[in-house]
From TrEMBL:
Spans through the membrane: 12-34, 40-61, 73-97, 117-140
InterPro entries in the record: Bact_2-comp_sensor_kinase (IPR050640), HATPase_C_sf (IPR036890), Sig_transdc_His_kin_internal (IPR010559)
Lineage: superkingdom: Bacteria
Organism: Chitinophaga ginsengisoli
Keywords: Kinase, Membrane, Transferase, Transmembrane, Transmembrane helix
Protein name: Histidine kinase
Every Signal transduction histidine kinase internal region domain range: 155-230
Gene Ontology cellular-component terms listed: membrane
Amino acid sequence: MSLKPFSEKFRLIWLHCLVWVSIGIISFFSMLQADGAGRSALSACNSCVFYALIVYGNINFLYPRFYQKKKFLLYLLGSIVLLVIAGFGRGYLSLYIRNEAFAAAPHWLDTWSHITFLLSVTTVFVLSFVFRLAMAYFTLKQQSEKILLQQSQFELRLLKAQVQPHFLFNTLNAMYYEAFMEAPRTALLIERLSDIMRYFVDQSTHEYVQLSTEIQFLDNYIALEKMRIQPEPELIFQRSIDDQRRIPPMLLMTFIENIFKHGIDKISGRNKIYISLFEKEQYLVFQTRNYLNRHADPRQMQGIGLKNLRQRLTILYGNDFDLYTTEENDEYFVASLKFPLT
């Protein structure tokens, strides 16, 4: 169990105690010359107890339970009851202390004394809102400092985390130059891989990316996949769109990934892929079409990527998108995605 929340709570309690001790000392010295040390000390303690009852009764009970829930009549009635209890309680206890310990003859209260009791505690009741604002300020200040500390720690971790990708990029670049003269195809493979990884690090966390950046990422991924498949699949990628448009990153990747994960028939080698990307009435339409893989492992889990994609599209666009997959003529697998452009 962390001791930090406990220490913060302890500090807050000490702050409250310091406030009330200060009020008590001020009350004591304000009455000291007229009433003497003993009576001034008792009166100060008596006042602090009932003042605290008013302050905490209001800000911890009445205000959150009634006022903040717009139960204004109950709040008014509760405030009156609190003021009567605190005002008369303080007054009668003060009178009892005076008559029992300090007065030569009993002293009785008149009507004006009762009014004075109520007026004095009403002033404290009003000041309780100031006390509440002060508490809220200190709490907010602590939360702000905590958030700033967490942000600084996050930024530090982020800087540390960037060391490894940048080291890897530098290593890949060195490998690329080493391989370029001896094995150009391998060098091209390294370059594609480096671009893909840089996309993940620099772009995939952004809210939006340029469509040209997303297309380049798809081209690099497709190039890598085609290199590892023999015979190399035939792929036709038709696009007719303004590549300066912006879209959320990684929305198009799922279709391409599914083709190379589930749609490539390595036994027959009959692999032809059609991809189209175009704009229609302020919507982006992305479609893929590939031969059904007759030798696919039926135990492979499929549809998880599409399920996640649908959930993400729902978060981004509500119901303003279309996503479907189908088998065409028992020969082709077709996937289609349509969502609004910004």
